């Protein structure tokens, strides 16, 4: 039975997962290596709730409940009594393995460990623990409070009971879930990322302007954002990272990053968060 939630990594994704969990009534313990990042995450939550209150879609009582349900941890040992700990730190396998190794030693034996990774192998992370059967992927989408999906990823070792518990937990925070195998990109990114890479390739070869590529896909296919805006929104570095992992795994040109993407990342054009990507943004 999942009652208490731990979240390690309190950036955009971790804080979003904390928000939906706290809104569903779970006590949430959150942590980030940096106190400033944790505070910024709380700021995202407050802003998102304030916006919802402004629109009449939430009230002050919900805001109080969400913020009241979230507590900050300063060391991994404080996660000992959590029923599930979800990791949402940067996409670096060594850092993730280090965190899971420590969580495995400090958490009670029943604790389920989960990663929100978009592309790294869940099995690889589970291999550094002594609870491979109690390890899953819970891949949420950005912005977490808005996007309805969670991919629940099982490895060859994940037990049926743990998979079901993780699946039910994601449903209980308001998500519709799909089951995915532990394969790079799971279901959504393995389809989405080649589409974004193709849009960048077409922009690079001068097929159309950035606006026309985006408008084409928004109005022609009913997408809420065009592919270049969506790449800016997700982060060019994130898309490059996922593409490189999938290319490394599948050795298929479908997943190879266009030179323009790599050049933009190297030049710091990381998208909305950097104030510039395919478009320019007000950093505030
Ligand atoms: N928190 C809470 N609510 C938010 C929010 C946030 N961070 N951001 C937006 N919203 C809400 C708004 O309040 C608004 O609510 P309403 O409809 O009830 O009034 C609604 O979402 C729409 O927002 P806006 O009116 O501000 O703006 P848009 O209509 O442009 O919608 C968007 C913004 C929801 C981001 C929409 O453009 C969208 O769905 N874009 C596609 C996002 C997407 O594809 N995400 C998945 C990325 S892939 C991924 O995450 C996987 C990873 O591994 C790479």
UniProtKB/TrEMBL annotation:
**Record: residues binding NAD(+):** 9-14, 32, 91, 96, 118, 142, 273
* Pfam families, per the entry: 3HCDH, 3HCDH_N
3-hydroxyacyl-CoA dehydrogenase C-terminal domain residues are 185-281
Annotated positions binding CoA: 48, 55, 118
- Kindly indicate whether the keyword Lipoprotein belongs to this entry: no
Which residues are marked as site: Important for catalytic activity? Answer: 139
**What keywords sit in the KW lines?**
Fatty acid metabolism, Lipid metabolism, NAD, Oxidoreductase
Indicate yes or no for the key word Secreted: no
- Name the chemical reaction catalysed here: a (3S)-3-hydroxyacyl-CoA + NAD(+) = a 3-oxoacyl-CoA + NADH + H(+)
GO MF annotation list: (3S)-3-hydroxyacyl-CoA dehydrogenase (NAD+) activity; NAD+ binding
- Give all residue intervals belonging to the 3-hydroxyacyl-CoA dehydrogenase NAD binding domain: 4-182
Which InterPro entries did the record assign?
3-OHacyl-CoA_DH, 3-OHacyl-CoA_DH_NAD-bd, 3HC_DH_C, 6-PGluconate_DH-like_C_sf, 6PGD_dom2, Mito_3-hydroxyacyl-CoA_DH, NAD(P)-bd_dom_sf
Q: Under which pathway is this protein filed?
A: Lipid metabolism; fatty acid beta-oxidation
Q: What are its GO biological-process terms? A: fatty acid beta-oxidation
Recorded hits in PANTHER family, A to Z, give: HYDROXYACYL-COENZYME A DEHYDROGENASE, MITOCHONDRIAL (PTHR43561:SF3), PTHR43561
The name this protein goes by in its record: 3-hydroxybutyryl-CoA dehydrogenase
């Amino acid at each position: 039975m999942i009652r208490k939630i731990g979240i390690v990594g309190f950036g955009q994704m971790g804080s979003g997962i904390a928000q939906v969990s706290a809104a569903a009534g779970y006590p949430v313990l959150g942590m980030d290596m940096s106190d400033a990042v944790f505070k910024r995450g709380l700021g995202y939550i407050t802003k998102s709730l304030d916006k919802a209150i402004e629109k009449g879609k939430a009230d002050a009582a919900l805001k109080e409940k969400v913020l009241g349900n979230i507590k900050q941890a300063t060391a991994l040992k404080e996660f000992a009594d959590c029923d599930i700990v979800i990791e949402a730190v940067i996409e670096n396998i060594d850092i993730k393995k280090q965190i899971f190794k420590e969580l495995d030693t400090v958490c009670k034996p029943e604790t389920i460990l989960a990663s929100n990774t978009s592309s790294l192998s869940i099995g690889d992370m589970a291999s550094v623990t002594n609870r491979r059967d109690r390890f899953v992927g819970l891949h949420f989408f950005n912005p977490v409070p808005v996007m309805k999906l969670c991919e629940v990823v099982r490895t060859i070792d994940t037990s049926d009971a743990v998979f079901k518990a993780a699946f039910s937990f994601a449903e209980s925070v308001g998500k519709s879930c799909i089951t995915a195998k532990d394969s790079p990109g799971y279901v959504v990114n393995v389809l989405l990322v080649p589409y974004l890479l193709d849009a960048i390739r077409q922009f690079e070869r001068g097929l159309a302007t950035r606006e026309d590529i985006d408008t084409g896909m928004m109005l022609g296919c009913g997408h809420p954002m065009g592919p270049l805006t969506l790449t800016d929104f997700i982060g060019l570095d994130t898309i490059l990272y996922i593409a490189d992992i999938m290319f490394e795994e599948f050795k298929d040109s479908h997943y190879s990053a266009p030179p323009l993407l790599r050049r933009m990342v190297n030049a710091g054009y990381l998208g909305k968060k950097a104030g510039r990507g395919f478009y320019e943004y007000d950093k505030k």
